[in-house]
Amino acid sequence: MPYLSSSLVDSLARSAGFTLAGVAPAPAEDSAEDRSQRERFAQWIASGAAGEMEYLKRRNEQGELIRASLHSVFPWARSVVVCAADYSSAQPRSIDPTPQGTGWIARYAQTGSQTGSPQKDGGPARPSDYHKVLLKRLEKLEAALKVQLGEFESRCYVDTGPLVERVYARLAGIGWTGRNTCVLNQQLGSWLFLGVILTSLEPGPDSLPQLATDRCGSCTRCIDACPTQALTPYQMDASRCIAYLTIEKRGAIDEELRAGIGRQVFGCDICQDVCPWNKKARRAHAPRAEDPELAPRAALVNPALDWLAAMSEADFGQWFFGSPVKRAKFAGFRRNVAIAMGNSGLARFLPRLQEWTMDDDPALRQAAQWAITRLTANHSPELPAELPAG
User: Fold this and answer.
1) Could you say which of 30, 159, 254, 315 is catalytic?
2) Under a CB-based contact definition with an 8 Å cutoff, are residues 271 and 265 in contact?
């Protein structure tokens, strides 16, 4: 059986459309590294930090957490090919000054393909989902490797495999795990999508990269900037993370966390936007060529809350079918918009919120009533003394 060369993988991965790639050895079953990974993941799950993300808590017939160790599902795995695609752009950051009454959709969900005919908004022809884009590239790389090396056992995954990708990204030399739990590359920062190929091949002698040095130093900007205090050094409580709350959480969001959500209507980029390494990468690579399949749709950068609130379910489907935003579902999206309106301080949103207090969806009704209370409690001179008649 041939070895898996890191230089070959990187060359073929770039040809497949990735920015960089590396090879990580799969820790031997019951090795110190394997036990450490199992224990860390089990402790994180036991702490409740996974919230309602039940897929992270799945166990096999032996009762082992599937995502804690590759060997729980694929005992044949000997190496992990880790590929990274850069999705940074020159578009404004979530923390930059913005017009009043705008929301924020996480950078990774703004993406669209630049191929095809333009949409009415003048942007890319259609939304794109990095899961699908990267999976096609991984399958292309997988096929190319089999042409070079012959047949071997393999599986391709983008966020769906029985492993924690950032662990293997570190072992493959892609970068270090930052204090915000994101993978950080010294040249590129953290705007990186990760995809992996599990293989039965042993990593070659050149596939044992020197691990990237943790260069976070004493910096705590990501931790300090998190509005819901979801971060502690190198740990994230997903149940408090704005990305989790606005995407994965179903039903009502805890009242104590709503103000911290701010204007985020899908996901959150704050801990990455404040990172000095991303600022440095932005300066060093400007102007930066955007990935044609992962370029932001201009209409989704700082979108007006009025526009988002006016979307019908059909409009939502038209704009976001094939986009990660669909994961929040129409109900969750409107709930998020209501909370963002409540955090805006703008009285012009009161009529829409009043309308939503009579909606069939209890989570939307609750969010709208909270937003009305928050707006009317604000002593801004713009706000009326009483609510508009319902």
Assistant:
1) 159
2) no
Residue 384: exposed, middle, or buried by beta-carbon count in 10 A (0-12, 13-18, 19+)?
A: exposed
Domain of 130, in residue numbers: 6-89+126-207
Q: How far apart are CA 377 and CA 374, in angstroms?
A: 5
Cα distances (Å, whole numbers) of residue 373 to 126, 308, 378: 38, 21, 9
Indicate whether 364 belongs to any domain: no
User: How far apart are the C-alpha atoms of 44 and 238, rounded to whole Å?
Assistant: 10
Structural domain contains residue 111: no
How many beta carbons lie within 10 A of that of residue 49, not counting itself? Answer: 19
Residue 192 lies in a domain: yes
Tell me the per-residue pLDDT of 98-148, one tens digit each, with 9 for 90 and over.
Answer: 999 999 999 999 999 765 444 544 444 589 999 999 999 999 999 999 999
Q: How many domains are contained in the chain?
A: 1
Residue 178 one-letter amino acid: G
Helix axes 362-377, 329-342, angle to 10 degrees: 10
Does residue 379 lie within any of the structural domains? no
DSSP state of 102: B
Model confidence pLDDT, tens digit, residues 192-220: 999 999 999 999 887 666 789 999 999 99
Measured distance CA(265)–CA(101) in Å, rounded? 12
DSSP per residue, 262-314: TTEEE---HHHHT-HHHHHHHHHT-S-PPPTTSEEPGGGSS-BHHHHHT--HH
140 phi and psi, to 5 degrees?
A: -65, -45
In this prediction the pTM is 0.87
Q: Residue ranges of the chain with pLDDT lower than 50?
A: 116-118, 120-124, 381, 383-390
306 among known catalytic residues? no
- The secondary structure of residue 57, as a DSSP letter, is G
